[in-house]
Design goal:
The structure is a single chain. By secondary structure, the chain is of the alpha/beta class. It has one domain: P-loop containing nucleotide triphosphate hydrolases (Rossmann fold). The chain has a 6-stranded mixed sheet with strand order 6-7-8-3-9-10, sandwiched between helices. Helix 3 runs parallel beside helix 5 and helix 5 runs parallel beside helix 6. It is globular. The mean pLDDT is 93.
Length: 207
């Protein structure tokens, strides 16, 4: 599903990833752990195609990422993203934020997804009218709307309390049960309760 071969990355002259090899199978919930500066967020960015590694090759569903002609369309169709900050547009309602990200044929599914995630009553509200935990659940809905093959999440609960963190993990776990692969980078060791595989980073290497 995801295969990385000899992935290295540099920021200027500083090397942050060192010749990493890894493989993630379809339907896994992978927990990338490690201290700040360990390289986990950079690795996640490389795996998610948001960052091109300085060296090495990345394959998604058997496709070499460097050979994909229209990477933006590929991302929209195949990949969901959840970040620590929700990146919702404040002048759009919850429904409109998700609709903006949705493929045309997926737009009719928005209300059903909001209902499934327990936030249908927020559809007409604006981001500044709902709580931080609710905003992050909307961000998860936005990531799920196109039924991606994989969701990448970078510290998605970094600004949430334990209750809302658990809600986000459970939503991602339910997506995994339906066949979506989840790759999540976090400091929060509670992710282990949901993960099928744990990858621990240290100094740019997999321990």
């Amino acid at each position: 599903m995801i295969k990385a071969l000899n992935i290295s990355h540099f920021y200027g002259k500083e090397q942050v990833l060192y010749a990493l090899d890894l493989e993630i199978k379809k339907g896994e919930f992978v927990f990338l752990s490690g201290d700040s500066g360990s390289g986990k967020s950079t690795l996640l960015s490389c795996l998610s195609t948001l960052l091109s590694p300085s060296e090495g090759e990345l394959f998604l569903e058997g496709q070499r990422v460097d050979d994909i002609v229209d990477i933006d369309t590929f991302r929209q169709n195949k990949i969901g993203f959840v970040f620590q900050f929700h990146y919702l547009i404040n002048y759009l309602s919850v429904f409109e934020n998700i609709s903006l990200a949705a493929l045309q044929d997926k737009k009719p599914n928005i209300n059903a997804l909001l209902k499934e995630l327990g936030i249908l009553d927020l559809a007409s509200r604006y981001p500044n009218e709902i709580s931080g935990g609710q905003r992050q659940r909307v961000a998860v809905a936005r990531a799920l709307i196109n039924e991606p093959i994989v969701i990448f999440a970078d510290e998605p609960t970094g600004s949430l309390d334990s209750r809302n963190s658990t809600l986000v993990y459970e939503l991602l776990s339910k997506a995994r049960e339906k066949g979506t692969t989840v790759v999540l980078a976090s400091h929060d060791l509670h992710v282990q309760e949901y993960a099928t595989q744990m990858i621990k980073m240290r100094d740019g290497k997999i321990q």
